[in-house]
UniProtKB/TrEMBL annotation:
Xref: InterPro entries: AB_hydrolase_fold (IPR029058), BSD_dom (IPR005607), BSD_dom_sf (IPR035925), Pept_S9A_N (IPR023302), Peptidase_S9_cat (IPR001375), Peptidase_S9A (IPR002470), Serine_Peptidase_S9A (IPR051543)
Coiled coil: none
Keywords for this protein: Hydrolase, Protease, Serine protease
SUPFAM superfamilies in UniProt: alpha/beta-Hydrolases, BSD domain-like, Peptidase/esterase 'gauge' domain
Biased composition (Basic and acidic residues): 9-31
Domain BSD positions: 147-199
Organism (species): Musa troglodytarum (fe'i banana)
A GO CC term assigned to this protein in UniProt: chloroplast
Its biological purpose: Serine peptidase whose precise substrate specificity remains unclear. Does not cleave peptides after a arginine or lysine residue. Regulates trans-Golgi network morphology and sorting by regulating the membrane binding of the AP-1 complex. May play a role in the regulation of synaptic vesicle exocytosis.
Family: Belongs to the peptidase S9A family.
Protein name: Prolyl endopeptidase-like
Stored Gene3D superfamilies: alpha/beta hydrolase, BSD domain, Prolyl oligopeptidase, N-terminal domain
Keyword Protease attributed: yes
Keyword Hydrolase: yes
Length: 1094
């Protein structure tokens, strides 16, 4: 009973408390409702008040515009009183015919020059139709006042109006194309890309004038009202309304009323027409400052504690500095808890040609500054934190790469004199070992007897691993080691080599006595660039470099009795037989000196005086110099577009008298040459494909007219079809008729018998199996048939040796892509067979485009890691790189923008043709290729979703203005000399560091090396800091910098270290593409797509 009473008491108490709580809740609810209503009335009242103010201001502006328009109309009417009324010959042209041209001063001011008029005469209507530009989002078709101003800034709009009225070609193109073939905005975007180099200086000058006027106006206003606070006063920052909210210009009103949302909507779209699309577009108009105005108006209220928390998230979700990116649509990958490092800024003003600019990160160029080391360390820590969730995939990738490597890698022996030389990488080691054995030309019985006596045992000449351990700096791996040049004396008794152990490419000469196996103590020389032995091996010739790494002095070492050395002065350095050649190159002028190694007392003598733009390379052959040159032919006065072959007598007084003997012929260009006792070998490009051919020498050339290559009965070396890369081997033996090529496949070509033997194909463990005829390894990708020249009928059917290939799994094709000016850009595409035009594949586009170097497309088994995951690999041979004719020159100096547009055209092609998904295209560039890729993403933010920049050349303008830096002077020929104003304007226009713009940039992995002497580590560091400062703060968190604090431009090297580096890059791409979760759920951690365990 007592228990019942207690329970009843509890129930009554609970009921009483419930009533009290209900009353309290009702009371609080009424108070909240009243507060909400009051706040809502205040908010609506304030909003209405502000709207009236804006409307009033807009009405005032409209009245001003109307009065200005009426005044302008009266002026035009006055000007046109005496003008005849034009009679249009065709419908649609009358609208442009009556426009009065502007005075000459205005035309010049807005870039309508005679140079521009001449340039547009070369543009055709197909240039606009075929221009490689991605489709634009739909925008309003309501015309603006001038019908051209939509999507243009003030200067561009004025320029476009003048062009339509004074340049008939552009007026006709616009009439033909708009709007039937393209929108007005697209037409003008293409136009300004085409004429960029002609009008950019005028636009910049105009904008600078406006800026100065605005600054002067602010100064005058302060003078008139001294009590007014400056706009940047700290105490006014929180309460002052943004200026843009109450000073809408005519362009702002156009954009607001007509719906022209600009071209900044560059994020990755989720494909849904939701609020995120609309707000992203709003972020690029003048509407956003209105939100800022309301936020400033309400900031003084207790809005964060109001009963409407959603308002606080609307108005205060981002700081003022990042308001433009509040609605960023690019969905960057996972961000670590660690925030990106913020680099310190030290004011520094640069100036050149009357222009000044700020470079607050200039301090980073001092590599001795401890703050730089600290900053790079923090960047490395952030990169590791960013990549922390990729640890498993990196481990898996390294396992895949190592599993495809054979335990021991060796090269086929190369016979030279009585010895066979070869290299191999011992099992489990990083670096190769150079060895040799005596040959056995006298039969196997005598060879066996000599072997038992120890005469044919292996001799280790140079072990890279021992050198790395000797100078080791790493605990896990052997230390950094780079062998620059390695030369064996012609009597096979000495080995001279250059060694870099720091990564800064400062090489030390060392000479090893091969009989004793010891390095000769007094043979070490610092700063050596190149080597060559004299004909009797009694003297070693070498060159040394200055502080800028330019060869400037020729020296010699003479061999004394007892393997001692004496130092002297002589020359250097190209060939090893009769005459040694020394080349000197500066400012597009090429000069070659020779020395007779059998009569070195005569010293150097000049082959020919330097001529601007002319290059030549010599080979000696029994009293003649064979010369590969681009010197002007008799019919021309300028350097030839490609190389041809000439000859002269090898006498000091006759070297200037050249006889042109061989021209390349149609679709063929000469790249290099090599010479032997009975054959001349030419490296050529035939319709863009690399080939070699041999010619029997000496030639009987009696005619004064040059001979076409095809008339000399050349033997074109048979190669696999779709071969992307082929280079010559060392080929030391001058008397041999065997010529070796590599690297994807090693083949010996017998030029006398015109036969070939396959010696080596790379072995990919698990994918290929060794054949009986190949004792060194197998596996060459994308090989289908033997390719030979149409004129080469000497290859018998019995010589059709089989090439091991992976064509069942992967395909390779070479196509041509139309660039902005109609140039056809060669594009090589490698992809899985299953990934044909699916529009879903991720892709990686490679580019370089500088120094006339052919883009490296050699095969590497590491590529299988991406290919087996469905990736497409593409290689763009843009202008500026190597190839046929003027491919190099048309991408250098003033033409450098061609390289960038070629690269973006290839990227757009991959997307538009369905090779790659539009949101899964990545790009990679190394060194000067990094400049190419970084400049491309400055122009097209949204084309690439991920980018890798390896030791990139990014701060080109500042670097080229400093001639004291290594290689700067040599780079003047490639990029131009910014000490010249015309070159400066061009370089500054595309410089990646100087043209970073606001917007959403892709995810970027930037790698650098602290001891890099070619591209300073500060180039990457400054670029990353600038991107973080100027671009979207959300997207820029996916920009990471990884610096190797011990290596140089070419990295650490080493077989297994390479796997770690590549795995890091591939894992970054997978993460940046948003594929990491899919990767974790896939089977790749256990086995690759071929079913082999990793």
């Amino acid at each position: 009973m007592d228990l019942w009473q207690r329970a009843k008491g509890f129930a009554e108490e609970a009921a009483k408390r419930s009533q009290e709580i209900s009353k309290e809740a009702a009371k609080r609810s009424q108070e909240l409702t009243k507060g909400a209503a009051k706040f809502s009335q205040e908010f609506v009242s304030e909003t209405a008040k502000k709207s009236k103010e804006i409307a009033s201001e807009a009405a005032k502006k409209a009245d001003l515009l109307r009065s200005e328009a009426l005044r302008a109309a009266e002026q035009i009417k006055t000007l046109t009183v005496d003008l005849p009324i034009p009679m249009p010959s065709t419908v649609g042209q009358a609208s442009n015919a009556a426009v009065v041209p502007e005075p000459g001063s205005d035309l010049e001011r807005f870039g309508v020059t005679e140079e521009l008029r001449e340039f547009v005469k070369g543009i055709t209507i197909s240039t606009f139709r075929d221009f490689p530009m991605q489709d634009e989002p739909e925008t309003s078709d309501v015309p603006t006042v001038s019908n051209v101003r939509q999507d243009l800034n003030e200067w561009q709009a004025r320029h476009a109006t003048l062009v339509l009225s004074t340049v008939k070609e552009i007026s006709n193109f616009r009439y033909e194309l708009c709007p039937r073939y393209m929108k007005e905005r697209k037409f003008w975007r293409i136009y300004f890309i085409l004429v960029d180099s002609h009008v950019a200086p005028f636009e910049k000058q105009y904008m600078e004038e406006l800026k100065k006027k605005e600054e002067q106006k602010q100064i005058d206003s302060v003078k008139e009202n001294p009590t007014a606070l400056p706009p940047t006063a700290p105490d006014a920052k929180e309460t002052e309304l943004p200026k843009s909210s109450t000073s809408l210009t005519a362009e702002d009103l156009d954009a607001f009323l007509l719906g022209d949302l600009g071209s900044d909507d560059e994020g990755l779209d989720d494909g849904k027409d939701g609020l995120d699309d609309d707000f992203d577009k709003i972020g690029s108009t003048s509407i956003l400052p209105l939100f800022d105005a309301y936020a400033a108006m309400l900031r003084g209220r207790a809005i964060l504690s109001s009963p409407f928390p959603f308002l606080s998230s609307l108005f205060f979700s981002a700081s003022a500095s990042s308001a433009s990116y509040s609605f960023c649509k690019r969905k960057p990958p996972y961000h670590p808890s660690l925030k990106p490092p913020v680099a310190k800024k030290i004011p520094f003003t640069c100036s050149a040609h009357g222009r000044t600019w700020e470079d607050p990160y200039r301090w980073m160029s001092d590599t001795g500054d401890p703050d730089l080391v600290d900053y790079l360390g923090r960047e490395n820590a952030y990169a590791d934190s960013f990549m922390a969730d990729t640890f498993d995939i990196r481990r898996s990738l390294v396992g895949e790469m190592k599993s495809r490597m054979p335990d021991k890698v060796s090269t086929p022996p190369e016979h030279w004199g009585p010895w066979s030389y070869y290299q191999y990488i011992p099992e489990g080691r990083e670096y190769p070992v150079l060895c040799r054995r005596l040959r056995h030309p006298d039969g196997y019985a005598k060879a066996l007897l000599n072997y038992m006596r120890g005469c044919h045992r292996e001799e280790i000449l140079l072990d890279w691993n021992e050198i790395a351990e000797q100078f080791g700096m790493l605990e896990i791996y052997a230390g950094y080691v780079h062998i620059g040049t390695c030369r064996i004396s012609l009597d096979h008794k000495f080995l001279a080599y250059t060694l870099d152990i720091s990564g800064n490419e400062s090489f030390t000469l060392q000479v090893k006595d091969l009989h004793s196996g010891h390095v000769i103590p007094n043979s070490k020389v610092e700063g050596v660039v190149s080597l060559a032995w004299a004909g009797d091996s009694s003297c070693l010739l070498y060159t040394v470099c200055d502080a800028t790494q330019r060869p400037y002095r020729q020296c010699s070492i003479g061999i004394l009795d007892g393997a001692g050395f004496r130092f002297g002065r002589s020359s250097a350095i190209y060939r090893k037989r009769y005459e040694l050649l020394y080349g000197y190159y500066e400012h597009k002028r090429w000069q070659v000196y020779v020395i007779d190694t059998e009569n070195m007392k005569d010293g150097l003598w000049l082959v020919r005086e330097r001529v601007a733009g002319v290059q030549y390379f010599l080979e000696h052959h029994y009293g003649f110099f064979y010369i590969l040159t681009n010197a002007p032919l008799e019919s021309t006065s300028s350097a030839a577009e490609g190389y041809y072959l000439a000859r002269c007598i090898a006498e000091k007084s006759l070297t200037a008298e050249w006889q042109v003997i061989v021209l390349p012929g149609q679709d063929v260009s000469f790249q290099d040459m090599d010479i032997f006792h009975g054959h001349l070998v030419l490296s050529i490009q035939q319709k863009g494909l690399p080939l070699f051919c041999s010619i029997d020498i000496p030639m009987s050339v009696n005619s004064e007219q040059p001979i076409k290559l095809e008339n000399l009965n050349p033997w074109f070396f048979p190669v696999p079809s779709c071969l992307c890369s082929i280079v010559a081997g060392s080929n030391h033996d001058f008397m041999s008729s065997i010529y070796r090529v590599m690297p994807d496949i090693i083949v010996d070509y017998d030029m006398g018998k015109r036969e070939f033997t396959i010696l080596h194909q790379e072995e990919v463990v698990g994918l290929t199996e060794k054949g009986e005829s190949d004792s060194y390894g197998v596996a060459f990708p994308f090989i289908f048939t033997i390719t030979k020249s149409k004129k080469d009928e000497s290859l018998e059917d019995g010589q059709q040796q089989s090439w091991t290939d992976l064509s069942e799994a992967f395909s390779c094709e070479r196509i041509e892509v139309v660039s902005h000016d109609g140039f056809m850009v060669p594009l090589t595409i490698v992809r899985p067979q299953k990934a044909k035009h699916t529009n879903q594949s991720p892709g990686l586009l490679h580019g370089y485009g500088a120094y006339g170097e052919v883009l490296d497309k050699s095969w590497c088994s590491d590529h299988i890691c991406l290919l087996s995951r469905g990736w497409v690999l593409a290689y763009a041979d843009v202008r500026g790189g190597g190839g046929e004719g003027s491919l190099h020159q048309s991408g250098t100096r003033a033409c450098k923008m061609n390289s960038i547009y070629d690269f973006t055209a290839c990227g757009m092609y991959l997307v538009n043709e369905g090779f790659v998904h539009k949101n899964k295209l990545a790009a990679i560039g190394c060194s000067a290729g990094g400049l190419l890729v970084a400049a491309a993403i400055n122009i097209y933010h949204s084309l690439f979703s991920a980018v890798i920049l390896k030791v990139p050349f990014l701060d080109i303008c500042n670097t080229m203005l400093n001639p004291c830096l290594p290689l700067t002077i040599l780079d003047y020929d490639e990029f131009g000399d910014p000490r010249n104003q015309a070159d400066f304007e061009i370089i500054h226009h595309y410089s990646p560091f100087d043209n970073i713009t606001q917007g959403c940039y892709p995810s970027v992995l930037v790698t650098a090396s602290f001891h890099d002497s070619r591209v300073g580590v500060w180039e990457a560091a400054k670029w990353v800091a600038q991107v973080r400062e100027k671009t979207c703060p959300t997207c820029s968190q996916s920009v990471i910098l990884k610096t190797n604090m011990s290596g140089g431009h070419f990295g650490e090297g080493g077989r297994y270290i390479h796997c770690e580096d590549v795995a890091f890059e591939y894992a970054f791409l997978i993460k940046a593409m948003g594929m990491l979760d899919d990767e974790k759920q896939s089977h790749y951690y256990q086995m690759d797509s071929f079913g082999k365990k990793c």
